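Onboarding guide, step 5: your first structure request.
Type a short instruction followed by the sequence, for example:

Predict the 3D structure of this protein.
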Amino acid sequence: MLSLIVFLPAAVAVVLAALPARLPARVFVGTWIAAALADLALIIAAWVRLPAPAAGVGQAGPGGASGFGFEERLPWIPSAGISYHLGVDGLSLPLLAMTGVLFLACAVFALRETRRVKAYVLLFLALQTVCLGLFAALDLILFFLFFDLSIVFMYFVIAGWGHAERARAAALKFFLYTFLGSLALLLGFILLFLAAQPHTFDIVELAAANPLAAGGAYAALTLLAIGVGLAVKTPTVPFHTWLPPAHTEAPATGSAILAGVLLKMGTYGFVRIAMPLLPTSWRQYALVVLIVGVVSVVYGALVALAQTNLKRMIAYTSVNHMGYVLVGVGAAGLVATGDVQARTLATTGALVQMVSHGLITAALFLLAGVLYDRGRSYDFDAWSGLAARTPRFAALFAVAAFASLGLPGFSGFIAEFQIFTGSLPAAPVPVAVAVTGILVTAALFLVALQRIFLGPLRTPDAPGTPRLLADLRPSELVAIAPLLALATLIGLAPRFLLDLVEPAAAAVNTLVAR
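The system replies with structure tokens like these:
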């Protein structure tokens, strides 16, 4: 079943590749929508059918028994200890579901796309396969393969459908930065492989064997290599500088997938690989991870507040929100041998934050794309007074802004509350500093709402004589509103998500505490 979920978009891409590009754009986009709907239905079926033990274990136990659902394992390169190994648990299935939802939203949003539609759809279908594959991968080399391919496909999305010459420069910076990070990640994987007896890249077997349980310099180097590779992708300070230009110049759908899905590859790697496979070193350096998270939270919020470009502002809030994830997983390492409830709360909050950020920030980037479509500008100074002319757009943007700042009733509040509650016992002073990020985030979104939606009407191309602005079109509304509805559902009734995530988070923390 997992292979079908992962490779269905790629199979559809192969079929579409045989069709002539002169066909109507709706043929390609409509097929993408149908494929995304089918894939999401399969993911929902997997969620419903996931066995309870798999949701509760999520890693190999001491005897090596797997706790994953829908597991598939075939020899791939046996002489090198590499296998085609897929499986899902409470860590990966929510991210698979989020990925399915976001690609479906982008497919609907793409109904407005007119530039080289066939190539555009083929790239996104290929990108969808590698994103789904990464979250289901249980072999380090398979994980790395999907990790690297995501960089390649996103490079072409930014360079081919971004904003002119600047897009190609931003795409090149994105590729070089993240490819360098992937090389560091590969080095860490090879070091893990060499430490294991027998040699293997299998995540389940490595978790059971714990080959670097003694810690030491070798284990620290391995964690450093893996940590740097994942930190670049996340991204955290100081590895974040590729993110703002990539987001600013990317098309709206590219930004939505980059922020909503690709950034989670880094944070998911920390929970799936770094924590359970290097538990001793993780506990030893957990305070460093937590402090990097705090710096990212505060720095991301402050720099976002200083922006005059809406898309750059949203990009820097991603640095801020991914910092919360590091705070949670770092705190879980600090209290690994102490309060069980605290470390479970912190790790659960980090996982919920991944899902929450994906939904909310993708909605914000799609809304920014709507704004650019209407006036070819993201600058705050180019817009004002839009609330009266575009009430649906203003309402959805306000909901997304309040959700992003962590207002109660939205998924961000559930995530941040769990992170702070679980982290405070471990490091009260750094976590208290991180809380100030919420205040700055609230300020920056309120300023953005005031500047864009209140006051006299002003548009970029008609100063003094504003033209009539179109409110959200049906395809834009259908793409964006469900993302915010899901963020609200998680905020008001999170049990369906927490019941899946909490047991898997507890299992990871059990492995970290070994």
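Each response can be followed by summary notes, for example: The longest helix spans residues 340-375.
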